[in-house]
Amino acid sequence: MGNLRIIIWIYVIHFCSLHFHVNCVRPTYQFTTKLSFIGANASGAEALAFDYSGGCPFAGVADGRILKYNCPSLGFQDFATTSPFRTKEECDGKPAPKCGRVAGLGIDYSSGGNLYTLDVFFGFFVVPPSGGAAIPVATGYNGTNFSLPNALDIDQASQYFTDAEKLFLTGNHTAIFASNDTEGKVYKYDIKTEELTLLVDGLTGPAGLAVSEDGDYLLIAEFMKKRIQKFWLTGKRANSLETLITLPGAPDNIKNCKRRFLGGVRVSKPETVEIVEAIGMMFNGVGRILETLNFTSEYNGRMVEEVQEFSSKLYLAAASSNFVGVDRDDFNHLRL
Ligand SMILES: *[C@@H]1O[C@H](CO)[C@@H](O)[C@H](O)[C@H]1NC(C)=O
Ligand SMILES: *[C@@H]1O[C@H](CO)[C@@H](O)[C@H](O)[C@H]1NC(C)=O
Ligand SMILES: *[C@@H]1O[C@H](CO)[C@@H](O)[C@H](O)[C@H]1NC(C)=O
Ligand SMILES: *[C@@H]1O[C@H](CO)[C@@H](O)[C@H](O)[C@H]1NC(C)=O
Ligand SMILES: *[C@@H]1O[C@H](CO)[C@@H](O)[C@H](O)[C@H]1NC(C)=O
Ligand SMILES: *[C@@H]1O[C@H](CO)[C@@H](O)[C@H](O)[C@H]1NC(C)=O
């Protein structure tokens, strides 16, 4: 019996590492590293980005700051802010609408490291590589303010971002799932021409977005519909939307990971909507789930908003925690 179990386990690992089309469920995680926000008096990262030169993460936190982790030992320090009304005295450690709330981050490496960011209250901004006060890029479209700018990705000269339902601000998931809201949108911003275009309308909680490696499609996470939509940007199917995959829970941010995608997924039973499993899922662009990562034991009934791979490590952001989780496992097997 013992031998049989060992053989089966090796078989599963083998399949995972060779990318066979199996939905591998990894055992529950225990982080060995937590990049703490305590020194910066912050919590609640909802977005991460990486500076290629140092590989130390930027984190958008709940009180309206973008922090940068100064490797190896200085920890998170202030880097930029979005709200024009924010003061350190009134806002550090005390999230409030006037302080801002950073929900999306993306670095334009081609520009030498401009950091683009979304604030759920104040809109779309760019931060120069030196940091400081973020410069507004757009606050709305065609005379109407954005509702809840939420997720961002960059493909060279184009920025794509979602605008989700204000209802998310309540944090009441019973109400969020019951709303049937279809006001969610995806916009494209052309950095050169400064033109803002509405690409997709009618979405139900577009909480995540990622551009494909070749820039030929977007994946959009529809939180309340628990699914990933695929929007074609080029080719015969350009400008059409199709359902790529339905998930066991509500997806938040999605990140491109070497021709695969990683998403933070909120799994709960309808009757216990506030008791949550923190799950990360890896899937590909044709809708196959490749791996399920279970972070439940580290997050104690709350979800993980973002799972991102950088330099063979996984980094996790959660609005409910005061750290960035780093998984020490070697994720080289994600490379094709
Ligand atoms: C953190 O911020 C809170 C709220 O502004 C403040 O009361 C507390 O003293 C701060 N703690 C530190 C260590 O700065
Ligand atoms: C902009 O808003 C006006 C007035 O609400 C509307 O008639 C028009 O169709 C909108 N244009 C676009 C491109 O959405
Ligand atoms: C739109 O946003 C601007 C700037 O953030 C604000 O001053 C204005 O009141 C908003 N308009 C509406 C209709 O909410
Ligand atoms: C959440 O929303 C549901 C449905 O709208 C409502 O019954 C419930 O009282 C709300 N919960 C809280 C804590 O506001
Ligand atoms: C959402 O749709 C469900 C199922 O169609 C319906 O029962 C519910 O009343 C709708 N909720 C709202 C707020 O319209
Ligand atoms: C994740 O782990 C928890 C225990 O920590 C377990 O209850 C749950 O079923 C697991 N979920 C999945 C999808 O593996």
UniProtKB/TrEMBL annotation:
One of its GO terms (molecular function) is hydrolase activity. Residues 150-235 form the Strictosidine synthase conserved region domain. Keywords: Glycoprotein, Signal, Vacuole. SUPFAM superfamilies: Calcium-dependent phosphotriesterase. It holds the Pfam family Str_synth. InterPro entries: 6-blade_b-propeller_TolB-like, Strictosidine_synth_cons-reg. GO terms for cellular component: endomembrane system; vacuole. It is found in: Vacuole. PANTHER family: PROTEIN STRICTOSIDINE SYNTHASE-LIKE 9-LIKE, STRICTOSIDINE SYNTHASE-RELATED. Belongs to the strictosidine synthase family. This is OLC1v1031671C1.
